[in-house]
Structures are given as C-alpha cells and as structure tokens.
Fold:
Amino acid sequence: MALVGPAPMLKTNPFAVLRSDLRDERSATVPFPPGETHVSLARTRRFAEEPLPMLLDAYERYGPIFTLRLFHGNVVFMLGPAANHYITVSHAANFTWRDSHFRDLIGLMGDGLLTIDGEFHRRSRLIMLPAFHREHIAASLDVIVQETESALDSFKPGATVDLYAWTRRLALRVAMRALFGLDPDGAQARSIDAAGLFEEALAFYASDYLLRVFRGRFTPWARMQEAARKLDTLIYAEIQRRRASGERGSDILSLLLDAHDEDGNTLSDVQIRDEVMTLMFAGHDTTTSTVSFMFYELARQPQIVAQLLAEQDSQLDGGRARPSQLIGGELAQLEMVLDETLRMYPPAWVGPRRAVEAFEFEGRTVPARAFVNYCSWASHHLPDVFEEPEAFRPQRFTPEARAALPKGAYVPFGGGSRTCIGMRFGQLEVRTIATLILSRFTLEQSPGFELSIRQMPTISPKHGLPMIVRERSAAATSLPAAA
Ligand code: HEM
Structure:
C-alpha cells in the first residue's frame, strides 16, 4: 500500500499567498521578537544580496532571536547553538517546512522529503533511509571515481578552469547516474537534454525574487514548470520501464522502487518521482558549492595544501585512496578541511520553517504561523562560538575540538529528524573529488578574482570560480602531515 501524501497547497496564486501571510501576521496574539519591523524595500534588497552581515549585525543588537521585515512580512531569525537545537531537535514538532519561505520548491520537487512534514515525513523517511545506508552509498563510489577521472581529463596545466561550472556539471552527472541510474550520455537522457532541463528548472530559484512572484506565460515560473514537465516524462517512463522489466541496479531509484516499511507501506510512482527530483536538487548543488569553496580556500592557504598532499603521500596506496578511506572519512587532514569548509560556507545556509503554535525562546515570544528560520551560515560565524570566524582554520575540527563544541553549534547538515539524508553520500562525493583533484593537480587562484556569494537557494560563488591548473607540486609534499 502506498503512503497517503499531504493535501496540495491550497493557494498557489502568489498574490493570494501574500494576502494570507499578511492576514496571519495581523492575527498574531503575542508580539514578534524585537528587530527591524518597518517596511523597507532597501532592506529586502540588501538581504537578498548579502544576508550574512545583516544577520550578524542584528544578532549583536538584539541577541539570538530577532525579527527582520523582509519581502512582504516579518521573518523571525534564531541564531546560535541553543536556537539551532531548539528548532531542529527539542521543539522540531512545532515547526513545518511545507509552508515556509521556500514553499516555491514544491513547484519543482512536489512532495519529496524536503517539503513534507509530520507523520508523512516520518514514514517516508523510514522507507527511504535504507537506501542511504553505508553499503548502498559505497556502491556509488565507482560512479563518482569514474566521472571525476573523466572530468579531470579536461584539466590542462596552465589553462584556467571555472571550477564551479566544472564541479556542477560533474555533480549533476554523478546524481543522474548514482541516484537515478540514468546514463547522461545515453540516447534517452540526450534526447531531451535531461541535464540542461534540470538546470533550466533550477534557474527559477536563482531568478530575481520579484520576478518569481509572477505566473503565466514567459515568466521564470512557466519556464520552470515546462522543464519539470519534460523531466517528468523521462522519470515516469523510467519508473514504468523498471517496474515492468523488474530491472534493478545499484542506484537509489532501484532501491526506492522496492522500498517499504515494516507495515508494508511503499512509495507510489508520484512519490518516487518527487523523491528523485528532491534528491537530484538537494544532492548536486550542495556538493558543487562545497568543492568550490574548499578549493577557493585552499588556493589561499598553501600550507594547508601541503598538509593534504603529505597526507596523501603517506596514506594512499600508489596514489589511490582505498574505498574505506573515502567512505569512512579516514584521511584526517582532509576531513578537517571539509568540516571547516562547511563551517564557513554551509551550502544549505538557512533552515526555513513556519511556527505551528506561538512559543517563547530566551524570553521573547513568537506568534503562531510566523516564519522562523535557523541559519547555519550566521551561526557558524558567531565569534562567541567560533573564535575569529573569518579565518579558515581546519584545526577547529580536531576530534577533541569538535567534541568540545556546544550542542547545536555546528549544523551544516541540519539536525534531528530532518538531518540531511544524503549527508554520507555528499561527504563521500566531496572527499572523492577533492582527493582526485589533489592527487593530480594544484589549483591556483586566478589573478584579480574576488569572491562574491549568491544565496538562492544554496550559497555558491556568484560569478563562478576561475582557477589556474598546475601540475601537482612535488615540493609541497615534503611538509609533515600533522600540524
Ligand atoms: C555537502 C553536501 C550537503 C549539505 C551541506 C546538505 C545540507 C542539508 C541540510 C542543512 C539539510 C536540512 C535542511 C533543513 O533543516 O531545512 C538537508 C536536508 C536534506 N538533504 Fe542534504 N546536504 C548535502 C548533500 C545532500 C545529498 C548528496 C543529498 C541526496 C543524495 C541530500 C538530500 C537531502 C534531503 C532529501 C534532505 C531533506 C531531509 C528531510 O527533511 O528529511 N543532501 N541537507
């Protein structure tokens, strides 16, 4: 028996949605936390451009919970370890995702794990969890290695590569093969340019917020819906083909087709489509950004690269990592670099929620139906939690230092019942790509490049990441592995 999903969102007309939000706000029975609550288009624009300084400034002025009036209404932000723990773990049941500020994602992903709540979320997650167990993730390693090695063949010493665009293409190919079992070079995928369509659908979420409100022909929304419709044809055809033939592979789609919980509940075709779309969305942007930001920082810190290379020299067999080293995160220096990258640049930077009931946190009240966000990006930049937060210091993540962090301080993968289900997959992919790049090349920052970050829906380098490719430098490996 298939699980029964949530009712469709009643209001999809964006103006009706805005009206209903304003009605909710006016019917608040308790005050919003203090903050900047007068209407300001400039503030909204500034937030869309550069939220981090605004959030850190508001934290300084108002403390760990405050309100900013953004777009058309009040938005509550809760920052810091206690706030993260409150929203994701101790009081998670009082928050929903589905009608949060990111509700537009339902237009592409439907009712996949990210956009559903409550019992349906719990049961769907139980059905899906086995597909993300260690042994299944390990089965994806070959695909990740093959795709990375073949993508690395395009690196020419002396040439400049846009590492962001390169990784994005690679991660999308990995996602198509490992999650969906679809060969990106096969006739089926190429006949509709599946990768291009997926990028086109995602472009909606990077478009100007004001344009995103409009529906109707020629709008970004219409383009996204059209791309999603074509992708659906491909996905449903593949689901039906596999159901009819019984063909299964080591990809996640194969596992979802047969997955069930202990009561015999399974996923319907529509649910599988929504989950596949959700995984493709959640799974490639995030890893792309992580690889990009990691190499951006490494290019500025040759001594850290030297430690990574020394680690490779001392621990890899003939220059190749063993699967256990990649799957288990056994390369300690690389692991700390990965953790520190995700501290400074957590791709899924904001956890959007809506409060079910009014509540109180640190002496401040929040009305029912308020938009409430936790924010890993800002929480990871609080100087009272991470000293000199702007400094890239992998040593913050030695096992001892990590264990000493307060509960909820470090949340790049969220927490509680909504912790990223693809965490192991994402970590494996980033470790593998990074190890293979480092074993063959050194990437230098392009002269004059200045990083600026865009954040819709995940944070990424706004203008790509041009880097100069060099042969791996042998001299650097003479430094010791441990700091
Ligand atoms: C470095 C890589 C990644 C990072 C930093 C990351 C981060 C996150 C975060 C912070 C959340 C929780 C969001 C919230 O609380 O609102 C999340 C949820 C999720 N992620 Fe990831 N993610 C990564 C990779 C992946 C991959 C590779 C996949 C799929 C293969 C994936 C699938 C998902 C899904 C389905 C959810 C929703 C889980 C639920 O609500 O039960 N993620 N991710």
Remarks:
- Residues 113-114, 125, 179, 278-279, 282-283, 286-287, 290, 342, 346-348, 351, 412-414, 418, 420-422, 425-426, 430 surround protoporphyrin IX containing FE (CB under 6 Å).
- DSSP finds 21 helices and 13 strands in the chain.
- Residues 269-300 form the longest helix (32 residues).
